[in-house]
């Protein structure tokens, strides 16, 4: 009995030692994982440093002076003329390859002047320059026809009769609608009714059209 | 007789046995204690490793590399200056094994910009055993030198300051010395912030727009080349908050590869300091491309002062009626000095005509009627009497009249007898057109809602009137060549002869055009100055104003100002005044 009692204390010591050893192993494992994390972090940092280095290299190779040199020697790009800018989405929406009914008779848009200390005048978005039409005609000469581009404007001018939906999707029908619209314009009548109202539009067109409608123009 | 000695039998009493057991117990306990000590040591070590590792985690948890010196970026985040790990090439002379002449020859072939003699001096002479052969070496250069197979040559990696945009905005950004301390520009002004441990991880964001800067430098360089000017300066300010959007000074330099200054030999005495050595602060702008003419050079900026003076007269109540005429029939003689007009109209002219035709005589008469106090007060508020409130260290002290006499008051009104930096004038024009509020200029991007220490220097009515008048100068006056269709540019020309030997040199002209756009709601001020243009027509209308026009056409859309031919400021009420009697 005495021997068992003495062994019992030794057993306790062994248990504690084993427990400490287990704890140490766990700690060792944690430290290993932590080191792995550190290595990953170091790799990320190193990679980011390399990215910085490459960015610096690209930035240095494509600096503004170099771009200017390339432009003067090869690209020959020039500053856009004022007539190439459009004042608003409304002007953009009005741009298409179809001229207004009587462009020569349309008066030149007035210059809107304002005292600077007065409240800022509304942007001249109601004005559409004749040159815009010429510009877009030349710019879009090579593009395939998109008859639906007239839709936004026509929606505002007069409530058009809804054309058959099939006409909006069928190229032949769209071409026919477009011819009808041109005929109506040339004959002096309003072509609005022939507009393919439900024609597919681009996102920009929809945005422009909806805003213009909101203005109650 | 034989004697037998026998070993006595050890006594094995129970008492002795107890002693033996105690001894065994003691030894076992000793071994146990040793084990416990080892386990405790291991546990302690574990705890220590845990604590130290925890600290290490705190140090290295960030995955973002922190540069030795903070990056500098423009207002859109485009890098203007950043640290990269670069190569240097150094030599340990005692480890060289090859022939030094042959090595120097090979190095000069790799680096053609240096002579063989230069490398031989480094390799063969000098007290130190270690020396740089080259700093900022390219990787292919390092590979070429490494291929020489010389064990005495080393390739240490060093943090290197790179300016990706090269000479673009070099004066504003500045550069650092080999120790990594800022020497010029923003690198110098914000040296502590760029190096501090707490802030070097965050880029320093300037108000500069690199696209606008490129357009400005390009157009300015064209103008200088066309006119053969000695130098030029230009600055673009945000009129609403004083931000410096672009700032250019020509000639310029490449901060990545600094050339030594070309100074006369022997040095003239005016460049020497008290110790008899070269004083860098005394080097004039004409001798150093590192001089920023926008903030370091002083000029009499001539007629560009006239709108400021007439604005002061409006606020002082001297000019209440723009239709009132002033005598400009003949040159004005005051105290033996004659004030005359370059384009004399020879009649009485009103205020719009004074500005549109840039009459010195009428401006002098208005200043004389106003007296010295209002003009002095205005110019002090515009900081024409002190270095500007500005971050850059390189700022010149204006030349303020020693005595504000009657003739000084009259000449200062049209920009003679007082010398300021172009930045002084640009900030003053911003106040003139933005509603009358002077903002301190800054090279840092302002935060939305930031409190600015601004002050009112003109009334709103005066500012509104000056916007009309400046626009009229471009529509009908000396600034016609500055007009950019659709952008509503307004501004004033100024062509001043440079002081020389106590007088003025008639052929040496400083041509300035100070402009703002769009004049119906001014947002940006552009000032272009050319130093001694050499063309046939040297005035600002033919030299600086076309640069403004080209720049505005090119850069205004980048700044969010688009051409609108159908908008303009209303000058209809003032236009008839130009034609009275004219």
Which key features would you list for this structure?
heterodimer; A: 217 residues; mainly alpha; 2 domains; 1% strand; elongated; B: 582 residues; alpha+beta; Beta-lactamase; 6-stranded mixed sheet; 5-stranded antiparallel sheet; 17 helices; 18 strands
Describe the structure.
- The complex is a heterodimer of chains A (217) and B (582).
- Chain A is mainly alpha-helical and 217 residues long.
- Chain A folds into two domains: 2-75; 88-101 and 126-215, no CATH class.
- Chain A is built from eight helices and one strand; from the N terminus they run H-H-H-E-H-H-H-H-H.
- Chain A has helices at residues 2-61, 64-75, 89-94, 130-139, 151-157, 165-169, 171-186, 203-215, and one strand spanning 112-114.
- Chain B has helices at 14-60, 100-110, 116-124, 139-146, 170-173, 185-189, 191-195, 210-227, 306-315, 351-356, 360-370, 372-381, 406-413, 422-433, 460-476, 544-555, 575-578; strands spanning 72-73, 79-92, 130-137, 153-154, 157-162, 204-205, 231-238, 244-250, 326-328, 332-334, 337-339, 347-349, 437-438, 455-456, 490-500, 503-517, 524-531, 567-569.
- Chain B has a domain at 218-253 and 289-578: DD-peptidase/beta-lactamase superfamily (Beta-lactamase), CATH 3.40.710.
- With 582 residues, chain B is an alpha+beta fold.
- The interface between A and B is large, with 49 and 63 residues.
């Amino acid at each position: 009995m005495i021997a068992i009692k003495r062994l019992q204390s030794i057993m306790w010591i062994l248990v504690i030692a084993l427990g400490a050893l287990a704890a140490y192993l766990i700690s060792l494992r944690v430290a290993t994982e932590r080191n792995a994390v550190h290595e990953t972090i170091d790799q990320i940092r190193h990679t980011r440093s390399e990215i910085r280095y490459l960015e610096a290299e690209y930035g240095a190779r494509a600096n503004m002076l170099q771009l200017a040199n390339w432009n003067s020697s090869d690209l020959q790009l020039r500053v856009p003329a004022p007539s190439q800018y459009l004042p608003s989405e409304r002007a953009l929406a009005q741009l298409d390859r179809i001229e207004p009914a009587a462009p020569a008779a349309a008066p030149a848009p007035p210059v809107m002047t304002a005292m600077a200390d007065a409240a800022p005048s509304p942007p001249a978005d109601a004005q559409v320059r004749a040159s815009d039409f010429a510009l877009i005609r030349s710019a879009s000469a090579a593009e395939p026809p998109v008859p639906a581009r007239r839709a936004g404007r026509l929606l505002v001018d007069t409530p058009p009769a809804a054309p058959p939906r099939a006409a909006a999707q069928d190229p032949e029908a769209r071409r026919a609608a477009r011819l009808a619209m041109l005929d109506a314009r040339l004959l002096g009548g309003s072509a609005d009714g022939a507009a393919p109202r439900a024609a597919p539009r681009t996102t920009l067109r929809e945005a422009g059209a909806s805003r213009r409608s909101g203005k109650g123009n | 007789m034989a004697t037998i000695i026998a070993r006595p039998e050890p006594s094995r009493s129970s008492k002795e046995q107890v002693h033996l057991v105690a001894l065994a117990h003691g030894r076992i306990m000793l071994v146990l204690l040793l084990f416990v000590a080892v386990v405790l040591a291991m546990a302690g070590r574990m705890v220590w490793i845990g604590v130290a590792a925890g600290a290490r985690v705190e140090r290295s948890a960030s995955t973002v590399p922190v540069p030795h010196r903070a990056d500098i970026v423009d207002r859109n985040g485009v890098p203007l200056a950043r640290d990269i790990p670069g190569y240097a090439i150094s030599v340990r002379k005692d480890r060289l094994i090859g022939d030094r002449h042959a090595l120097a020859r090979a190095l000069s072939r790799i680096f053609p910009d240096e002579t063989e003699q230069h490398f031989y001096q480094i390799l063969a002479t000098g007290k130190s055993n270690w020396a740089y052969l080259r700093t900022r070496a390219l990787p292919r250069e390092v590979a070429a030198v490494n291929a020489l197979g010389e064990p005495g040559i080393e390739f240490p990696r060093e943090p290197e300051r790179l300016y990706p945009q090269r000479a673009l905005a070099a004066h504003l950004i500045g550069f650092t010395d080999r120790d990594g301390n800022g020497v010029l520009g923003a690198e110098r002004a914000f040296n502590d912030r760029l190096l501090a441990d707490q802030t070097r991880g965050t880029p320093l964001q300037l108000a500069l727009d690199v696209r606008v800067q490129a357009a400005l430098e390009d157009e300015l360089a064209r103008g200088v080349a066309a006119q053969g000017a000695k130098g030029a300066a230009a600055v673009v300010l945000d009129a609403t908050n004083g931000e410096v959007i672009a700032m250019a000074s020509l000639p310029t330099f490449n901060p990545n590869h600094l050339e030594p200054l070309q100074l006369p030999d022997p040095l003239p005495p005016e460049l020497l300091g008290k110790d008899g050595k070269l004083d860098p602060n005394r080097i004039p702008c004409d001798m150093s491309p590192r001089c920023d003419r926008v903030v370091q050079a002083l000029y009499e900026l001539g007629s560009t002062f006239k709108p400021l003076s007439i604005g002061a007269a409006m606020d002082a109540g001297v000019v209440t009626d723009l239709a009132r005429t002033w005598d400009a029939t003949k040159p004005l003689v005051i105290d033996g000095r004659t004030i005359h007009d370059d384009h004399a109209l020879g009649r009485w002219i009103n205020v719009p005509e004074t500005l549109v035709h840039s009459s010195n005589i009428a401006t002098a008469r208005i200043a004389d009627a106003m007296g010295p106090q209002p003009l002095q007060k205005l110019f002090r508020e515009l900081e024409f009497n002190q270095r500007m409130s500005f971050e850059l260290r390189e700022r010149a002290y204006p030349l303020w009249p020693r005595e504000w006499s009657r003739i000084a008051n009259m000449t200062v009104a049209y920009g003679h007898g007082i010398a300021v930096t172009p930045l002084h004038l640009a900030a003053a024009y911003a106040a003139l057109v933005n509603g009358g509020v002077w903002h301190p200029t800054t090279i840092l991007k302002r935060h939305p809602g930031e409190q600015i220490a601004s002050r009112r220097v003109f009334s709103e009515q005066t500012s509104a009137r000056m916007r009309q008048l400046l626009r009229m100068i471009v529509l009908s006056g000396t600034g016609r060549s500055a007009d950019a269709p659709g952008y509503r540019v307004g501004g004033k020309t100024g062509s001043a002869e440079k002081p020389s030997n106590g007088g003025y040199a008639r052929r040496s002209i400083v041509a300035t055009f100070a402009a703002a756009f769009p004049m119906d709601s001014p947002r940006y001020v552009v000032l272009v100055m050319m130093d001694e243009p050499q063309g046939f027509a040297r005035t600002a209308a033919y030299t600086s104003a076309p640069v403004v026009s080209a720049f505005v056409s090119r850069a205004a859309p980048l700044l969010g100002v688009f051409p609108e031919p159908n908008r303009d400021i209303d000058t209809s009420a003032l236009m008839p005044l130009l034609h009275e009697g004219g």
